Amino acid sequence: MPAHIWDKVKDHPCYSEEAHHYFARMHVAVAPACNIQCNYCNRKYDCANESRPGVTSEKLTPEQAARKVAAVAAKVPQLSVLGIAGPGDSMFDWRHTSATFREVSKLMPDLKYCVSTNGLALPDHVDELAEHNIDHVTITINMIDPEIGALIYPWIYFKGKRYTGIEGARILHERQMEGLERLTEKGILTKINSVMIPGINDQHLIEVNKAIKARGAFLHNVMPLISDAAHGTAFGLSGQRGPKPAELKDLQDKLAGGANLMRHCRQCRADAVGMLGEDLSQDFTLDKIPEAPSYDPEPRRLYREVVERERADRNKAVASAEAELAETVEEAPAKLVAICTKGGGRINQHFGHAKEFQVFEVDAKGVRFSGHRKADNYCVGGYGDDDKLDVVLAALEGIETVFVAKIGRCPKDDLKKAGIEAVDQYPFEYIETAIAAWYADRFGNRAETSVIA
Hints:
alpha/beta, Nucleotidyltransferase, domain 5, 2 domains, eight-stranded mixed β-sheet, 14 helices, 18 strands
């Protein structure tokens, strides 16, 4: 990766898989207005229970957003990125979006700024994005064929008029491509989000990937459709299913060689706060933060120094792990393994506390991040919940091994009955190092020597 690109993404948890182990992001919900309707979206402005895009506990003014950013930065030294992702559209609600960045930049000019948009109003604001030093823009692009788009978008609102069907989807597509091309010309990094909707655009996303790569997109993030009737979305109410984890991985694997892929997205709320995979938003509602929070940049500076040392150490460990696999494993089947981690690139979480699993693929060529699986934490009040274990087992479909820092005897036995091995011999080790050592023991020369002995 060119040095100037690495400098932009090295501490952005969404644009760098490595960075998401160390850095946090926050979204401020200052842009409620939206100019399209998506069949997978139902915006909610006072919801604390759902974890999906378009949902927030409270709408903020730009001044309130700046106050909240200062409060979070004072408590979360990992914070590196401020994003505006709704709950509507950041470009359509540009007045609030731009005012927020002006307010925050007065307090914290060292933060990275990014926005997320459906792209319809994007071409109107590309120059202003550059003026605000916003060098990361995410566009949701689900189609390049208006006939498919008509199945996803009931209507768009453009230049004072509502358009429906194929005509609306065509206008949206043209504006998205124009916006992407202009961002590339400006040197602004773009991430393209695509929602995988089985039976509608799943195979079509291969063509989307080709189109966005040709126009200079930096990353392509294919996300699973979140479909639940309780959310009140058109797809949820109609019974449109989301993809299974194996289907999502299969599509992502087919896209290899096209635009770079993001596999670590958590499909965050519009008011998300913290590391990816955790949400501290309810700790920083307006009623819980000071009227005039004080901000000292020193803890964030010191934290970055720690991260640099940790990164260097981890990179050495990863290189050593790859060398071990190359030396000890000649040919063996690829394996998917799940990891319980709280961040830092280490196996550092109790099985019962995991709300998600990071998934890695390992073979003789090395260890690669594959994705993540959401699951309710098994332990509630110190006791295991059998119903939640069923959810965990469903999340681990297709995975035979889970690495944990610690696990109780009962859940370990239950996992074994389900054909899943819990590995607890590598607590607090780097993920790649532990996986490589385990794989070499099972499938490498050391395993053969042990059998002969």
